[in-house]
Amino acid sequence: MKREIAITADGSTTIFIPEWNESYHSKHGAIQEAYHVFIKNGFSLFEGKPISILEIGFGTGLNAFITLVEANKSKTKVNYTGVEAFPVLDSELNHLNYINQFDKEFQRYFTEIHKTPWEQEEQITPGFCLTKNQMYFQDIDFENSFDLIYFDAFGYRVQPELWSVEIFAKMYKALKANGVLVTYACRTSIKNAMLEVGFGVEKLPGAPGKREMLRATKRV
Q1: Comparing C-alpha atoms, which of 7, 35, 37 is closest to residue 212?
Q2: What mean pLDDT comes out for the span 117-135?
Q3: Does 7 map to a domain?
Q4: In the prediction, which pLDDT does 103 show?
Q5: Structural domain containing residue 187
Q6: Is 18 among the domain residues?
Q7: How far does CA 206 lie from the centroid of its chain?
Q8: How many domains does the chain fold into?
Q9: Has residue 158 been placed in a domain?
Q10: Is the dihedral of CA 73, 11, 61, 22 positive or negative?
Q11: Of 25-34, 74-83, 86-95, which has the strongest mean pLDDT?
Q12: Residue 81's domain is classified under what CATH number?
């Protein structure tokens, strides 16, 4: 499908898919949404402690990049695994402007995140280890491996199968005891799918432009 570069409300870029009328990030602000959903309501719960993170929908690498930045600031050791079925092209990456909004000391890491080989563990900084897996979400089979999941799949409207009981059962299995999953979405059917597989679920205020989001915890 055709993909285009678009500017969001906070000046940061995203990738837009005209056929679906769907973007990789919120049109209300890519960076501010990523910080609100995944850093404020996810990563911040673990700051200062070693953490393993699984990202569902690696996409532009924005979530991995801002996690690296925040991990460096808080001296948090991160083992980060990103899953993506259709990696972003180099030609698209060259038009994303995320690095311009961060200190120069971090800018080179955005490129390194994307240049590292797939299916191979790479140490990007002393405190941030990255593994990128090119695979379909349905093929995920991790078990008791992660403290935190960033669930950043395309929206329910265009890919409802990615928000199913089957997928959330895989997420539940992948998390360690008391592990946390955060996502920008807040739809009743999504919440019910999470509850059905055993998650404890809470609604939280959403990122700008969205009323609510969900955070799920593996209660065992």
Answers
A1: 37
A2: 97
A3: no
A4: 79
A5: 29-218
A6: no
A7: 15
A8: 1
A9: yes
A10: positive
A11: 74-83
A12: 3.40.50.150
Let me know if residue 36 belongs to a domain: yes
Distance CA 125, CA 180 (A): 24
99 pLDDT higher than 90: no
Taking residues 186-215, what's their average pLDDT?
97
Q: Does 112 have pLDDT greater than 90? A: yes
pLDDT at 140 over 90: yes
- Is the per-residue pLDDT at 57 higher than 90? yes
Q: DSSP string of 101-156?
A: GS-HHHHHHHHHHHHSPTTS-EEEETTEEEEEEE--GGG----S-EEEEEE-PSPT
| Distance between CA atoms of residues 54 and 79, nearest Å | 9
